[in-house]
Amino acid sequence: MGESAVKSTHTLRILALATILPVASFAQSLSERDVNQFVGKVLKQFNVPGVAVAIVKDGKVLLTNGYGVKTAGTQDCVDARTLFGIASNTKAFTATALALLVEEGKLEWDTPVIRYLPAFALSDPYVTRELTIRDLLVHRSGLGLGAGDLLWWPASTYDRKQIVHRLRYIPLATSFRSAYAYDNVLYSVAGEVIETVSGKSWEEFVSTRILAKVGMTHSVVSYPEDASGMNIATPHASINGVVRPVQPDTSANTNPAGGIMSCAEDIAKWMIVQLDSGRVAGSTPLFSPRTTRQLWQIVTPLGSGPAPAQLAPLQSNFNGYALGFGIRDFRGKKIVSHTGGLPGYVSRVSMIPELKTGVAIFTNQEAGAAFETLTYHLLDKLMVAPAFDWLGGFTWLVARQDSLTAAAEIAVTAARDTISRPSLPLAKYAGTYTDAWYGNVIITEANGKLGIRFAHTPSLVGDLVHWQYDTFIARWHDPEMRADAYVTFSLTPEGSIEQAKMKAVSPATDFSFDFHDLLLKPTK
Known about the structure:
The protein has about 525 residues and is of the alpha+beta class. It is about 30% helix and about 25% strand. It folds into two domains: about 5-95 and about 195-405, DD-peptidase/beta-lactamase superfamily (Beta-lactamase, 3-Layer(aba) Sandwich), CATH 3.40.710.10; about 425-520, Lipocalin (Beta Barrel). It has helices spanning about 5-10, 25-30, 30-45, 90-105, 125-130, 160-165, 185-200, 200-215, 255-260, 265-275, 290-295, 370-385, 390-415, and strands at about 15-20, 50-55, 60-70, 85, 235-240, 240-245, 260, 300, 320, 325-330, 335-340, 345-350, 355-365, 430-435, 440-445, 450-455, 460-470, 470-475, 485-490, 495-505, 520. Strands 1-3-2-13-12-11-10-9-8 form a nine-stranded antiparallel sheet, with helices on both faces. An eight-stranded antiparallel β-barrel has the order 14-15-16-17-18-19-20-21. Strands 4-7 form a two-stranded antiparallel ribbon. Helix 4 packs across helix 8.
């Protein structure tokens, strides 16, 4: 997005379809005008077209607002009912869905998954036998970070059941329950459990049993097939240094891990129900207080290292992952939260149970610093905490991360042997290669150039450009991928290709591009 577009975005009426219910303590610490001004600064600093904000306290909605615009360069304002992809904030809904089935006696948290899905398997028979329903939600199975994500993202030709079946071919990275490694694919398994036990698809169960019950009347469980005319924020990302609209993730494969689209008005209702132990105003409870204790109890402990001085209040004493929620402390209070990220959307939902307080931030640009800045600034105001420059702190963090990424990329380039050549004629690298869990990757040669295509991922098509020795770089034709990857071939003593491995070029590449887990073998 060019400079003129940025200026026009921020000269718009910044508040659209706002809902404000004054509460004395909130009004004393932060006025509506203060919120508007601060959000405007954050949007400008991090080049975010639009954001939705929801704040609740003591069972009441303090604020549900939209700021900025749905699409950069337009005057179509975000409002309190504008839908955003909430991505992995969906995980809390999947965990809650399982909890409802536990309360009904149809599931047990600590019963093995194979009791409900006999055909389910991971690569280790022991883990297959022992992995429980609880284990599906807490990122300690032994799978590596983002393992298996290439089965569903970018959008693949596999369906959800095929993805779950192929998990048995992914080697485990660590021993069972010994380490934390964030995954998405086991939430797909959780979706299959919900369907098998309830007789309803994940989408139908969450829509009817949770969204409708809570009153989230505008939210949907997946990006709509036809979004024309709907009140939806356009996803944006920085492509080659320019923030612009990008294609949304429309695949239903990841719905149990990240499919829900919601708005400020609806997520406020969700936070109120969560903070009130499942009680729903004017209706029977969604779940019991016992379920709240299960959802918010740390299962997988995480480290809580020192925070940098520029973000000192983030120093925590405890940190861990519960059932679809992260748990840590902030300024001496327990905070229950999760973030979410999809192409063009990032978000955070945060709740402080002791204060009955919740803040949710949805954005339509991949600027995590924006939702972090807004979250902690607003929580500080609600907690009447000492003033802290969160905007300055996260601006520093972005600059530092950018600097480290640039330095790493420069170091790799400097170490490149530019006069080296491939060991074989290019035509010898062409052929079909197979990975046990992903499937086929096809390498072609034409007119003295190599190409690469992932058989089950239509958008992963590109050129193979020689880097050094027997390493090439896959440069994807779709610039929105932002995931160029090294492809390194290994030879047999006889000079034929034994295997190929892949690795993302930039450390900034999203971890869901788990190229490093592929072991590509030439097909016979």
